[in-house]
Amino acid sequence: MISLQTKIFAHRGASAAFAENTIEAFRGAVALGADWVELDVRRTADVGLAVHHDAHLADGRAIVDVGAAELPASVPTLSAALEACAPLGVNVEIKNSPQDVDFDPAAAIVEPVVAAIEATSVEVIVSSFHPPTLDRVRAVAPDVATAQLTFNLSDPERAVRFAVEAGHVALHPFDATVTRDLVRLAHDAGLALNVWTVDDPARIRALAQMGVDGIVTNVPDVAVEVLRR
Fold first, then answer.
1. Are the C-beta atoms of residues 180 and 206 closer than 8 Å to each other?
2. Which fold, 7-228?
């Protein structure tokens, strides 16, 4: 039996139908029936908030070297993106990887992200692959829900325990690492499990049957067809 509780997260908006992480993609996610939107945020040179997955713009400039007013029109600010996503919930992924040119060990991006979240009425969960960035969110805004993103899960029990001890409400694992045992471990620990990124209808159905809480997908319309109809 497919769980009607499984939420559909539109990955970077409805990114199969529209350019990813754009206002059009977010509005498209609303129109196509998603429950949530997943988007990425990076800091600009003046600590503005650019909604963009990669550390560099299409023209090669590093976002961290560009002022917010100099961003291309296609790159929205976080505040504009949150407004476009309403009334859906929004998973804000903070990009702050040690491998990227904009890495900031102090995670100064957290304060403006929290300010943008507190200025909106939409439901938000903040995720990141970088645990210290999420620790900073927990310290600055303990009421903001947070989730640990994972790619490799060689030790699922340890990952679940780490997420609980860090104060997160969810674990966001890569699809290939998700099993019924992981779903059970997460739920037994009180964590939601939101899986990324799944476009195949059969896998969407299988994950829902496992009882995952959310599925991140580039094709929210396909997920709606599988899960709602």
1. no
2. TIM Barrel (3.20.20)
| Look-up of token digits 């099993």 | 179
pLDDT of residue 1: 40
- Total-model pTM: 0.97
The predicted structure's pLDDT at residue 229: 75
Q: What is the pLDDT of residue 80?
A: 98
Angle, alpha carbons 100-106-109 (nearest 5°): 70
Distance CA 74, CA 105 (A): 28
Report residues of the chain scoring pLDDT below 70: 1-4
Nearest to 41 by CA among 96, 103, 117, 111: 96
